Amino acid sequence: xxxTKPVNELTIDDLKKSPIWEWAxxxxxxxxxxxxxxxxxxxxxxxxxxxxxxxxxxxxxNNEEPFPIMCSVDMENATVSISSIILxxxxxxxYHAIEDxxxxxxxxxxxxxxxxxNEQIRFLNFTANKVDIYKNHLTTNLF
Length: 143
Description:
8% of the residues lie in helices and 47% in strands. By secondary structure, the protein is mostly beta strands. The protein has a domain at 42-141. Strands 1, 2, 3, 4, 5, 6, 7, 8, 9, 10 and 11 form an eleven-stranded mixed sheet that branches. The N and C termini lie far apart (36 Å).
């Protein structure tokens, strides 16, 4: 059986092992489980059926080394959107919502996600300015 966990316990290491984590709404593996729990998807191929799932990416901030991130992904036709972006600070071993770190960022912010989508590896590139971060919703095209 797949291991479920509360979304606030999901880690970058979890995403390195399983690149897509979906909401475990229909699973009752644990009696404490509710709608905030996630599980590794049974596939590594992202399709519209997995919209809203959480994936791994990286953000380039202030021309420093890239930070690992996790975010929610949605796809509609040739457009991919990300939201709920969480940065991982390896030095401090802490997770931060990107909107909580906005004062520390020199824009633009560059986010890259490598993901198999409809059986093809895609490199999704997002560029964000301050307004985008406050909306917490970025989009890019597949083609």
